[in-house]
Amino acid sequence: MAVDSTPIGQRYEMLELLGTGGMGSVYRAYDRLSGQTVALKRVTVAPRPAADTSSLLLALAQEFRLLASLRHPIS
Predict the structure, then answer these.
(1) DSSP string, 3-33
(2) Are 14 and 5 in contact (CB under 8 A)?
(3) Considering the entire predicted model, what is its pTM?
(4) Cβ contacts of 67 within 8 Å, gap of 6 or more
(5) Which residues touch 65 (CB under 8 Å, ≥6 apart)?
(6) Residue 74 neighbours by CB under 8 Å, 6+ apart
(7) pLDDT digits (tens, 9 = 90+) for 4-50
(8) Is 8 exposed, middle or buried (0-12, 13-18, 19+ CB in 10 A)?
(9) Distance (Å, rounded) from C-alpha 72 to C-alpha 1?
(10) How far apart are CA 30 and CA 25, in angstroms?
């Protein structure tokens, strides 16, 4: 599915929606800085009570660390 290719942060150009889940959507994107095609996750966070904020931030930080460490050759 084609998406709006307006650059995100002047760096990433969204090319295609790959899938969606409970915390956001994953796109095939072009990294204008590295010149590589990457998977980019756009996180969607629903409003939560203040008590849930710290657990949400911890979960997001853990996910970001994991996702940033992934490397996979594009076939």
Answers:
(1) ---PPBTTTEEEEEEEEEETTEEEEEEEETT
(2) yes
(3) 0.65
(4) 41
(5) none
(6) 37
(7) 767 788 899 999 999 998 878 899 999 999 999 988 888 887 776 76
(8) middle
(9) 22
(10) 16
Structure tokens of 30? Answer: 């072009």
Distance CA 31, CA 71 (A): 14
Token readout for 25 is: 């959507």
Tokens of 42: 């756009």
Quote the CA–CA distance of 39 and 16 in Å, as a whole number. 10
| Amino acid at the residue 3 | V
Q: What is the CA radius of gyration of the chain?
A: 14
